[in-house]
Amino acid sequence: MAQGCLKCLKYTMCIANFLCFMCGVGVLGFGVYMTISFKIAALTPSLAQFSISNILLITGIVITCVSFLGFLGALKENRCLLLTFFLLLFFLMLVELTIACVLLVYEKDIGDWVSKDLTTGLESAKGSTRNSTELLNDWDLLQKTLDCCGVKNYTDWGKNVPASCCPEKCDHPNNYRQKGCLDSMKTFFEENFLNTGISVIVLCVIEVLGMCFAMTLFCHISRSGLGYKL
Q1: pLDDT of res. 230
Q2: Which pairs count as long-range contacts for 115-118, CB under 8 Å and 24+ apart, including other chains?
Q3: Which is nearest to 186 in space by CA: 223, 154, 152?
Q4: CA distances for 56 relative to 27, 49, 62, 92, 216, angstroms
């Protein structure tokens, strides 16, 4: 009976970690694609290291490494790998909860920081250098995607309002998108706040289940005297 439970737990962990590994590879590939195709981080120079593409790359690498560790530990019935897998999941859960708390506590400060950074990026985009042309392309993509213009409104661009500020023709100020990109970004995050919270909770539940499975398998292997020792 114990051996049957051990095998069931073992293959359940193998399948779950294999699926997580494939998801991690997908996230990593999408992060590479975002890094090559989009440079939205140029809009906020101070937050460039926290761009969506960088976050996806880091997330993909972490998921693939941790899930591979869990898969290999379960398959080989290696107690050392299972314990490492358990500790990594516990550490990741603490990091996620810490980040969530920091974002909630310093929400206003982060908003002010992003506002200043967007203003700096927009001022740079007004220039005539090659780098500013790339920045302008990034602003065009942002303004079309979020249906906005400038940081607070179209007046941030002065006399050189880009065509991306208009849904159709820019022949009159009334045709400009009236909403600023900062407000649009805030609205976007507020609308998706519930989905983000649910995703974090689901992720924490999955991690807790992974830790329970890993520790249960670790204890089963220890009691039956199977697998590699520490």
Answers
A1: 46
A2: 115/151, 115/182, 117/43, 117/44, 117/45, 117/46, 117/47, 118/43, 118/44, 118/151, 118/181, 118/182
A3: 152
A4: 6, 12, 10, 15, 31
Cα gap 208→89, rounded to integer Å = 8
3-state secondary structure 176-200: CCCCCHHHHHHHHHHHCHHHHHHHH
| Cα distance between residue 85 and residue 88, in whole Å | 5
Asked if 70 contacts 13 with a C-beta cutoff of 8 angstroms, the reply is yes
pLDDT in tens, 28-86: 888 788 777 665 555 665 555 566 677 778 888 998 999 999 999 888 888 889 899 99
Which amino acid, residue 210?
Answer: G
Three-class secondary structure of residue 78 per DSSP: strand
Give the residues across from 137 on adjacent strands: none
| DSSP per position, 116-141 | HHHHHHHHHHTS-SHHHHHHHHHHHH
At position 172, the amino acid (one-letter code) is H
CA 184, CA 182: separation in Å to the nearest integer?
A: 5
pLDDT tens sequence across 128-174: 555 556 667 778 888 888 888 888 888 888 887 888 888 877 777 77
CA 110 to CA 5: how far, in whole Å?
49
Amino acid letter, 134: E
Structure tokens at 107: 């929400």
